[in-house]
Predict the structure.
Amino acid sequence: MKVIIPLAGKGTRLRPHTHVTPKPMLKVAGKPVMQYVLDDVKKLRGVEQVIYITGHLKEKVEAYAASAMDLPSVFIEQKVQDGTAGAVALARSHVDQPVLIMFVDTIFDADLSIIESTDADGIIWTKEVEDYQRFGVVVTDDAGYMTKIVEKPSTPISKRANIGLYYIKNWKLLYEGIEAVLTRPANKGEWYLTDAFQYMIDHGAKLRVVDVAGWYDAGKLDTLLETNLAMLQRGHVRPVENVDNSTIIEPVYAEAGVTVRDSIIGPNVSIGAGTVIEGSTLSHSIVGTKVKIMTSTLTQSLIGDEAVLENVRGHVTVGDQAEVHAS
C-alpha cells in the first residue's frame, strides 16, 4: 500500500502563524497536527511508501516529515493550487497499488485496520454532524455504500460529513476518474477528488462508507483550540516543570523548561518549551516556545514562538517574535 498525504495549502485562516509555520506543523497538545496522522500511518502494516504533496513552506514540511518517519518517502511540489484532485494526480507515477489518502487539516479516531480485510473497491470515512450545511456530505445506499457526495446541502439528505480520509483499493479506476475530472472545466480554479470518486461509482465501483469515532478540525483558530482541548482530554498532558506561587487548572500540556510564577494557568492550555509566564491568567490557549507573558489575562488565544506580551487582555492572535505592550 502507498500513502498519499497532500499538505500544500497556505493555511490562510490561521495567519499570521502560517506565514512562517506550515499549517500541518502547528501544535495541539504539544504535538504538530500532522504528527497525529503520521502516528496512525506507523501503526499500519504493509506501507511501502509515503508520498507527500507539498507546497507552502515545503522545505520545513519535508525536513520534519523526513525526521518523523522511517518509511520510504517521496516529496512532490504542487506548484499550482488546483484542488484535491490535482494534488493526488501528482502522485500518479508513484502509485502501482492500493492507496490511503490522508488530508492533515484534521485529526481523527478511525479504525484503519479494516483496510486489511475489506473486499470493497475503497473506503470513505465520515463523521455524522448536526451542522451538515457546512460540509460535503456522503449519501449511501441501504448496504452502506456511497452513492454520491452533496456539497453543503440545504436539506438533511445526509449528515455524514466527508472528512478527508480515504482508502482506494481500485487505484487504477481512481486515476482514470482523476484524469476524467481534470478534463472538465475547473470550479473556481480547482478540481475535486470527490468528483473522481463519483466517477468510480458511476463505473461500478463499491465504496464503503465508515464513520469515525472522532474528528477534530485544526484549520482555523476556534476549532484549533477545540482540538487542543480534545487532545488534552485524551491524555496528552504534561505538568509544568517550574511552578512558583501559581495555580494550574488541568488539563495543561507544558514542554520542557516552562516557568510559571504568580499566575493561574488552565484549563485547556498548551505551552511551548522555555516559555515564562509571570503575574498572568491564561486559559483556552496555545502558546509557542520561548514566549514571555507578563501581567496579562488571556483566553482563546494563539501565541507564536518568541513573542513578548505585557499587560495584554482578552482574545489575541500574535505571530512569532512579535511584541505587544499594552498600557
User: Anything to note?
Assistant: The longest strand covers residues 160-168.
